[in-house]
Protein backbone atom coordinates (compact mmCIF):
# COMPACT_ATOMS: atom_id res chain seq x y z
CA UNK A 1 0.00 0.00 0.00
CA UNK A 2 1.58 3.26 -1.01
CA UNK A 3 -1.33 5.67 -1.01
CA UNK A 4 -2.60 6.85 2.36
CA UNK A 5 -6.16 5.80 3.13
CA UNK A 6 -8.15 8.60 4.75
CA UNK A 7 -11.31 7.99 6.78
CA UNK A 8 -13.36 11.17 7.19
CA UNK A 9 -16.46 10.86 9.40
CA UNK A 10 -19.23 13.27 8.38
CA UNK A 11 -20.62 15.05 11.44
CA UNK A 12 -23.97 15.32 9.66
CA UNK A 13 -24.78 12.03 11.43
CA UNK A 14 -23.17 12.93 14.78
CA UNK A 15 -25.01 13.72 18.01
CA UNK A 16 -25.51 17.49 17.66
CA UNK A 17 -26.52 17.79 21.31
CA UNK A 18 -23.08 16.48 22.34
CA UNK A 19 -21.00 17.39 19.31
CA UNK A 20 -17.70 18.09 21.08
CA UNK A 21 -17.81 14.77 22.92
CA UNK A 22 -18.91 12.83 19.85
CA UNK A 23 -16.15 14.29 17.65
CA UNK A 24 -13.58 13.65 20.38
CA UNK A 25 -14.73 10.01 20.47
CA UNK A 26 -14.53 9.54 16.71
CA UNK A 27 -11.00 10.99 16.56
CA UNK A 28 -9.90 8.74 19.43
CA UNK A 29 -11.38 5.86 17.41
CA UNK A 30 -8.96 6.53 14.53
CA UNK A 31 -10.65 9.09 12.24
CA UNK A 32 -8.15 11.01 10.11
CA UNK A 33 -10.18 14.13 9.35
CA UNK A 34 -13.55 15.56 10.30
CA UNK A 35 -15.89 16.18 7.36
CA UNK A 36 -18.40 19.04 7.41
CA UNK A 37 -21.43 18.79 5.10
CA UNK A 38 -22.53 22.41 4.85
CA UNK A 39 -26.00 22.79 3.32
CA UNK A 40 -27.76 26.08 2.63
CA UNK A 41 -31.33 25.00 1.78
CA UNK A 42 -30.81 26.64 -1.59
CA UNK A 43 -28.23 24.74 -3.62
CA UNK A 44 -29.44 21.59 -1.81
CA UNK A 45 -32.89 21.07 -0.26
CA UNK A 46 -31.64 20.88 3.32
CA UNK A 47 -30.05 23.09 5.96
CA UNK A 48 -27.22 21.89 8.20
CA UNK A 49 -24.68 24.15 9.94
CA UNK A 50 -22.14 26.87 9.30
CA UNK A 51 -18.77 28.21 10.41
CA UNK A 52 -19.77 28.84 14.09
CA UNK A 53 -19.88 25.05 14.58
CA UNK A 54 -16.33 24.80 13.24
CA UNK A 55 -15.18 27.52 15.65
CA UNK A 56 -17.02 25.84 18.54
CA UNK A 57 -15.19 22.56 17.87
CA UNK A 58 -11.83 24.35 17.72
CA UNK A 59 -12.64 26.18 20.98
CA UNK A 60 -13.60 22.81 22.50
CA UNK A 61 -10.08 21.57 21.70
CA UNK A 62 -10.56 19.57 18.50
CA UNK A 63 -7.29 19.81 16.56
CA UNK A 64 -7.90 17.23 13.81
CA UNK A 65 -8.01 18.54 10.23
CA UNK A 66 -11.44 19.88 9.30
CA UNK A 67 -12.50 19.23 5.72
CA UNK A 68 -15.49 21.34 4.65
CA UNK A 69 -17.76 20.50 1.73
CA UNK A 70 -19.79 23.56 0.82
CA UNK A 71 -23.06 22.36 -0.71
CA UNK A 72 -23.97 25.99 -1.05
CA UNK A 73 -24.12 29.06 -3.20
CA UNK A 74 -22.04 32.03 -1.94
CA UNK A 75 -18.92 29.86 -1.82
CA UNK A 76 -16.42 32.72 -1.64
CA UNK A 77 -17.96 34.37 1.43
CA UNK A 78 -18.45 31.08 3.28
CA UNK A 79 -14.89 29.94 2.51
CA UNK A 80 -13.63 33.07 4.27
CA UNK A 81 -15.86 32.43 7.32
CA UNK A 82 -14.64 28.82 7.55
CA UNK A 83 -11.00 29.90 7.26
CA UNK A 84 -11.53 32.31 10.18
CA UNK A 85 -13.25 29.51 12.13
CA UNK A 86 -10.24 27.17 11.81
CA UNK A 87 -11.03 24.93 8.83
CA UNK A 88 -8.16 23.41 6.84
CA UNK A 89 -9.77 22.49 3.56
CA UNK A 90 -12.67 23.63 1.38
CA UNK A 91 -14.39 21.60 -1.30
CA UNK A 92 -16.98 23.46 -3.35
CA UNK A 93 -19.69 21.96 -5.53
CA UNK A 94 -18.91 22.38 -9.22
CA UNK A 95 -22.58 22.84 -10.10
CA UNK A 96 -23.04 25.69 -7.60
CA UNK A 97 -20.52 28.11 -9.04
CA UNK A 98 -19.81 29.80 -12.37
CA UNK A 99 -16.09 30.62 -12.40
CA UNK A 100 -14.25 27.43 -11.47
CA UNK A 101 -10.73 28.79 -11.87
CA UNK A 102 -11.47 31.98 -9.93
CA UNK A 103 -13.04 30.07 -7.04
CA UNK A 104 -10.08 27.67 -6.82
CA UNK A 105 -7.68 30.60 -6.63
CA UNK A 106 -9.70 32.43 -4.03
CA UNK A 107 -9.66 29.41 -1.71
CA UNK A 108 -5.93 28.90 -2.24
CA UNK A 109 -5.28 32.58 -1.49
CA UNK A 110 -6.97 32.02 1.87
CA UNK A 111 -4.23 29.47 2.60
CA UNK A 112 -6.57 26.47 2.44
CA UNK A 113 -6.31 23.31 0.39
CA UNK A 114 -9.03 23.03 -2.23
CA UNK A 115 -11.29 20.42 -3.78
CA UNK A 116 -14.19 20.27 -6.20
CA UNK A 117 -17.21 18.01 -5.76
CA UNK A 118 -19.39 16.74 -8.60
CA UNK A 119 -22.89 15.34 -8.32
CA UNK A 120 -23.67 11.80 -9.50
CA UNK A 121 -25.12 13.00 -12.82
CA UNK A 122 -22.24 15.37 -13.68
CA UNK A 123 -19.52 14.09 -16.04
CA UNK A 124 -16.09 13.93 -14.39
CA UNK A 125 -14.42 15.02 -17.64
CA UNK A 126 -15.51 18.60 -16.88
CA UNK A 127 -12.81 18.71 -14.19
CA UNK A 128 -9.91 17.52 -16.34
CA UNK A 129 -8.66 21.02 -17.30
CA UNK A 130 -8.25 22.06 -13.65
CA UNK A 131 -7.07 18.82 -12.00
CA UNK A 132 -3.55 20.12 -11.65
CA UNK A 133 -4.78 23.02 -9.50
CA UNK A 134 -6.63 20.78 -7.03
CA UNK A 135 -5.77 18.88 -3.86
CA UNK A 136 -8.88 16.71 -3.97
CA UNK A 137 -11.83 15.69 -6.16
CA UNK A 138 -14.99 14.58 -4.39
CA UNK A 139 -17.15 12.21 -6.41
CA UNK A 140 -20.58 12.32 -4.79
CA UNK A 141 -21.95 8.78 -4.71
CA UNK A 142 -25.45 9.93 -3.70
CA UNK A 143 -27.40 13.06 -4.58
CA UNK A 144 -26.27 15.70 -2.07
CA UNK A 145 -28.57 16.90 0.67
CA UNK A 146 -29.19 14.04 3.09
CA UNK A 147 -27.25 11.44 5.04
CA UNK A 148 -28.21 7.77 5.07
CA UNK A 149 -28.88 7.36 1.34
CA UNK A 150 -27.99 4.36 -0.82
CA UNK A 151 -24.77 4.39 -2.81
CA UNK A 152 -25.33 4.85 -6.59
CA UNK A 153 -23.20 2.18 -8.36
CA UNK A 154 -23.01 4.04 -11.68
CA UNK A 155 -20.68 6.57 -10.03
CA UNK A 156 -17.94 3.88 -9.97
CA UNK A 157 -17.20 4.45 -13.66
CA UNK A 158 -16.44 8.11 -12.91
CA UNK A 159 -14.03 7.19 -10.10
CA UNK A 160 -12.21 4.81 -12.44
CA UNK A 161 -12.06 7.38 -15.22
CA UNK A 162 -10.70 9.98 -12.80
CA UNK A 163 -8.02 7.62 -11.51
CA UNK A 164 -6.90 6.92 -15.07
CA UNK A 165 -6.88 10.61 -15.98
CA UNK A 166 -4.86 11.48 -12.86
CA UNK A 167 -2.37 8.81 -13.87
CA UNK A 168 -2.23 10.23 -17.41
CA UNK A 169 -1.58 13.72 -16.03
CA UNK A 170 1.03 12.40 -13.58
CA UNK A 171 -1.17 13.51 -10.68
CA UNK A 172 -2.06 10.17 -9.14
CA UNK A 173 -1.33 10.33 -5.42
CA UNK A 174 -1.16 14.13 -5.56
CA UNK A 175 -4.88 14.79 -6.04
CA UNK A 176 -6.96 12.74 -3.62
CA UNK A 177 -10.08 10.95 -4.83
CA UNK A 178 -12.73 11.34 -2.12
CA UNK A 179 -16.14 9.66 -2.15
CA UNK A 180 -19.20 10.54 -0.10
CA UNK A 181 -22.59 8.88 0.21
CA UNK A 182 -23.53 5.37 1.27
CA UNK A 183 -19.94 4.46 2.20
CA UNK A 184 -19.94 1.37 4.43
CA UNK A 185 -18.29 -2.04 4.79
CA UNK A 186 -20.24 -3.36 1.78
CA UNK A 187 -19.49 -0.53 -0.64
CA UNK A 188 -15.94 0.45 0.31
CA UNK A 189 -14.36 -2.50 -1.51
CA UNK A 190 -15.54 -1.47 -4.97
CA UNK A 191 -14.94 2.22 -4.22
CA UNK A 192 -11.33 1.53 -3.22
CA UNK A 193 -10.78 -0.74 -6.19
CA UNK A 194 -12.07 1.97 -8.54
CA UNK A 195 -9.55 4.45 -7.13
CA UNK A 196 -11.00 6.25 -4.10
CA UNK A 197 -8.59 6.74 -1.20
CA UNK A 198 -10.52 9.23 0.96
CA UNK A 199 -13.80 7.95 2.35
CA UNK A 200 -16.47 10.13 3.92
CA UNK A 201 -18.86 8.10 6.06
CA UNK A 202 -21.67 9.46 8.19
CA UNK A 203 -24.28 6.95 9.26
CA UNK A 204 -21.98 3.90 8.95
CA UNK A 205 -19.79 5.36 11.71
CA UNK A 206 -22.04 7.49 13.91
CA UNK A 207 -24.93 4.99 13.99
CA UNK A 208 -22.56 2.30 15.30
CA UNK A 209 -21.89 1.53 18.97
CA UNK A 210 -18.16 1.01 18.49
CA UNK A 211 -16.63 3.73 16.28
CA UNK A 212 -13.12 2.23 16.44
CA UNK A 213 -14.33 -1.12 15.18
CA UNK A 214 -16.08 0.46 12.16
CA UNK A 215 -13.19 2.81 11.28
CA UNK A 216 -10.58 0.04 11.57
CA UNK A 217 -12.71 -2.28 9.44
CA UNK A 218 -13.28 0.38 6.76
CA UNK A 219 -9.56 1.18 6.64
CA UNK A 220 -8.54 -2.48 6.38
CA UNK A 221 -11.05 -3.16 3.61
CA UNK A 222 -9.88 -0.08 1.68
CA UNK A 223 -6.24 -1.15 1.96
CA UNK A 224 -7.07 -4.70 0.93
CA UNK A 225 -9.01 -3.60 -2.16
CA UNK A 226 -6.90 -0.59 -3.16
CA UNK A 227 -6.44 -0.06 -6.91
CA UNK A 228 -3.19 -1.63 -8.13
CA UNK A 229 -2.32 1.77 -9.65
CA UNK A 230 -1.49 3.04 -6.15
CA UNK A 231 0.70 0.17 -5.13
CA UNK A 232 3.75 1.54 -6.87
CA UNK A 233 3.81 5.25 -7.51
CA UNK A 234 7.53 5.13 -8.25
CA UNK A 235 6.78 5.79 -11.93
CA UNK A 236 6.53 9.43 -10.80
CA UNK A 237 10.18 9.34 -9.78
CA UNK A 238 9.45 10.50 -6.20
O1 LIG B 1 -23.03 14.59 2.22
C1 LIG B 1 -23.97 13.84 2.23
C2 LIG B 1 -25.15 14.11 1.49
O2 LIG B 1 -25.10 15.36 0.96
C3 LIG B 1 -23.96 12.51 2.91
O3 LIG B 1 -23.63 11.60 1.95
C4 LIG B 1 -23.09 12.37 4.13
O4 LIG B 1 -21.89 13.06 4.03
C5 LIG B 1 -22.71 10.94 4.39
O5 LIG B 1 -23.80 10.29 4.71
P1 LIG B 1 -23.90 8.71 4.75
O6 LIG B 1 -24.40 8.31 3.39
O7 LIG B 1 -22.53 8.17 5.01
O8 LIG B 1 -24.84 8.45 5.86
Principal-axes shape call: globular
Give the termini distance in whole angstroms: 15 Å
- What's the gyration radius in Å? 17 Å
Secondary structure class reads: alpha/beta
| CATH-defined architecture | Alpha-Beta Barrel
> Which strand order spans the largest sheet, edge to edge or round the barrel?
1-8-7-6-5-4-3-2
CATH homologous superfamily descriptor? Aldolase class I
Enzyme class: isomerase
Catalytic activity: D-ribulose 5-phosphate = D-xylulose 5-phosphate
Family: Belongs to the ribulose-phosphate 3-epimerase family.
Function: Catalyzes the reversible epimerization of D-ribulose 5-phosphate to D-xylulose 5-phosphate.
Characterization of this structure:
It holds the Pfam family Ribul_P_3_epim. Pathway: Carbohydrate degradation. Keywords: Carbohydrate metabolism, Cobalt, Isomerase, Manganese, Metal-binding, Zinc. This protein has an 8-stranded parallel sheet. The chain has one domain: TIM Barrel (Alpha-Beta Barrel). The chain is an alpha/beta fold and 238 residues long. It is built from 8 helices and 8 strands, in the order E-H-E-H-E-H-E-H-E-E-H-E-H-E-H-H. The mean pLDDT is 96. 5-O-phosphono-D-xylulose (5SP) binds next to strand 8 and helix 7.
What are its keywords?
metal-binding, 17% strand, zinc, 238 residues, alpha/beta, globular, eight-stranded parallel β-sheet, single chain, 8 helices
Sum this structure up briefly:
The chain is an alpha/beta fold and 238 residues long. The chain has helices at 19-28, 51-60, 75-85, 100-109, 156-168, 188-194, 203-206, 211-224; strands spanning 6-9, 34-39, 66-71, 89-93, 113-118, 136-140, 176-180, 198-201. Strands 1-8-7-6-5-4-3-2 form an 8-stranded parallel beta sheet.
